[in-house]
Amino acid sequence: GKTKEELIGTIGFGESVCVDKEAKKKVLITGAGSYIGQSFIDYAKKYYPENFEIDELDMVGDSWRECDFSNYDIVYHVAGIAHADVGNVSEETKEKYYAVNTDLTVEVAQKAKTEKVKEFIFMSSMIVYGESAPYGKKKVIDEHTVPTPANFYGDSKLQADVAVRELADDSFKVIVLRPP
User: Fold this and answer.
1) What pLDDT is stored for residue 13 in this prediction?
2) Interior angle at CA 77, CA 72 and CA 83, nearest 5
């Protein structure tokens, strides 16, 4: 039920990025032990050792709900179910993808906003744009490309992507990353 513009969002194509090496940020990675989260920790320690204090939070179960997010400047949400063989799965499996990739993401973003976190970063996926081009063909994704997920995995990520962007305001910045 969203317009093309609402689905696309404000994409950062062509915008320069400048790192304030004087800033100190406290970051909570929601999704302990994840490849992306650990890679970010390693990168930050190597290139910005004085700028970040990073904690991780396990999102399995309900204990994460007791964590006080108000101590953090940024929540970086990487928890999710990655795509696997999406061709022949049960409705129960599909529901689990939506519960984790959509519902959990939105709940974490809402908690972050309620507890006055300044920034929420969501690790979405380029899968929101559908399947990749077949071998030998070219598919270009740019600031005008409308997301059209090809399956429930892509749709679960897109629904979270759109919902968390709707939470953004002057005091709660939302950043959505859509890597391949």
Assistant:
1) 66
2) 170
CA atoms within 13 A on the CB side of 120: 31
Cα atoms in the 13 Å half-sphere on the side-chain side of 113: 19
Burial track 168-179 (b if 16+ CB lie within 10 A, e otherwise): beeebebebebe
Q: How far is CA 59 from CA 6, 12, 86, 166, 170, in A?
A: 29, 29, 23, 23, 27
8 A C-beta contact, residue 31 and residue 80: yes
Q: How far, CA to CA in Å, does 55 sit from each of 18, 25, 26, 157, 178? A: 24, 11, 8, 24, 23
Q: What residues have CB less than 8 Å from 34, skipping those under 6 apart?
A: 78, 79
Averages of pLDDT over runs of 10 residues in the chain (180 residues) are 82 73 94 95 94 96 97 97 78 93 98 98 94 92 91 94 96 93
Q: What is the pTM of this model?
A: 0.91
Q: Enumerate residues 6+ apart whose C-beta is below 8 A from 135.
A: none
Predicted confidence at residue 20, as pLDDT, reads 83
**Taking the mean position of all CA atoms in its chain, how far away is CA 117?**
15
